[in-house]
């Protein structure tokens, strides 16, 4: 007859335990990713960087089972995109595709760097590399660095060389090479590679460093002559073009191909970075569409770990920062 009062506290205790268990389950995070991922692109739609960004986004979405939505935030050579990432949560749902220029050059052409690549980002993966090529207009009678050097010495004021803009890899590579050749040269910045290419083919400038895809098309058309490839090995796209080390051993340290990476905001949980890196490796190793699309853009795919983006940035910045200081490129 006294069983009912005895059972009541037990029932209450069981109910409390059930509520606590339900609350704990409710607080557990959903498996990642549980919603679409935002991938910020620092170049406008239609650019080479944007195209590579979208190839990764498509493959990552297939592997993750969630949309990877590309948001273009172009402007100020990547600074606007970086600033946008910095105000987003470090939760794995906000990523940024970023180039070698933004990771190793852009911050250091300002006396007060707008961001710190080694402090503000956590790496996801380096997607691949693409070499740059020094080219001259056809019809100048220039077919080697030695002949370009001779032209510079015989031309009042030396050679004029173009680039897509001040502080770009093309600007720094060509400036460093001119310095190593020991000849005078004047940098002529253009708004984008296309405008500089037009000036180069029109012989308004003597030389320009171009991405290999741009250069190869015009070499095959007979409008440009390639002199050296800024890479560690020759490219199948231009197999007869020597590497910079072959063309000028003293300039072997300029074998600095362009590269693109995916990064997250600093503080993103390591397990999410590892998950995204594993997806990238699966795309690289087993997704034929991913591989063929990037290789068609003359991108050499590379195996990668999450820490590589920072490591590559530190490695290349060790070359670029002294050169920026030597050329006096840093501005307010």
From TrEMBL:
<feature type="signal peptide">
    <location>
        <begin position="1"/>
        <end position="26"/>
    </location>
</feature>
<comment type="similarity">
    <text>Belongs to the UPF0065 (bug) family.</text>
</comment>
<dbReference type="Pfam" id="PF03401">
    <property type="entry name" value="TctC"/>
</dbReference>
<dbReference type="InterPro" id="IPR005064">
    <property type="entry name" value="BUG"/>
</dbReference>
<dbReference type="InterPro" id="IPR042100">
    <property type="entry name" value="Bug_dom1"/>
</dbReference>
<protein>
    <submittedName>
        <fullName>Tripartite tricarboxylate transporter substrate binding protein</fullName>
    </submittedName>
</protein>
<keyword id="KW-0732">Signal</keyword>
């Amino acid at each position: 007859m006294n069983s009912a009062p005895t059972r009541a506290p037990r029932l209450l205790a069981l109910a409390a335990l059930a509520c606590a268990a339900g609350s704990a389950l409710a607080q557990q995070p959903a498996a990642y990713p549980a919603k679409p991922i935002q991938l910020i692109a620092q170049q406008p739609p239609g650019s080479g960087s944007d195209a590579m960004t979208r190839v990764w986004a498509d493959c990552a979405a297939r592997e993750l089972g969630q949309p990877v939505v590309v948001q273009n935030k172009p402007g100020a050579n990547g600074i606007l995109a970086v600033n946008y990432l910095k105000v987003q949560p470090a939760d794995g749902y906000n990523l940024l595709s970023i180039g070698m220029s933004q990771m190793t050059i852009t911050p250091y052409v300002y006396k007060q760097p707008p961001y710190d690549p080694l402090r503000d980002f956590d790496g996801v993966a380096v997607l691949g590399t693409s070499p740059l090529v020094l080219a001259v207009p056809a019809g100048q009678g220039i077919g080697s660095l030695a002949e370009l050097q001779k032209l510079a010495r015989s031309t009042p004021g030396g050679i004029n060389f173009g680039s897509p803009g001040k502080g770009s890899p093309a600007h720094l590579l060509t400036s460093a090479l001119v310095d190593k050749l020991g000849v005078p040269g004047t940098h002529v910045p253009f708004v984008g590679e296309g405008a500089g290419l037009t000036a180069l083919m029109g012989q308004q400038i003597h030389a320009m460093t171009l991405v290999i895809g741009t250069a190869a098309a015009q070499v095959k058309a007979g409008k440009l002559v390639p002199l050296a490839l800024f890479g560690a090995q020759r490219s199948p796209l231009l197999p007869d073009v020597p590497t910079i080390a072959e063309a000028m051993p003293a300039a072997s340290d300029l074998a600095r191909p362009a590269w693109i990476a995916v990064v997250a905001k600093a503080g993103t949980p390591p397990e999410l970075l590892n998950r995204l890196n594993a997806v990238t490796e699966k795309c690289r190793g087993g997704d034929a569409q991913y591989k063929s699309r990037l290789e068609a853009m003359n991108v050499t795919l590379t195996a990668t770990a999450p820490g590589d983006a920072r490591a590559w940035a530190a490695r290349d910045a060790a070359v670029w920062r002294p050169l920026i200081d030597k050329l006096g490129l840093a501005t307010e």
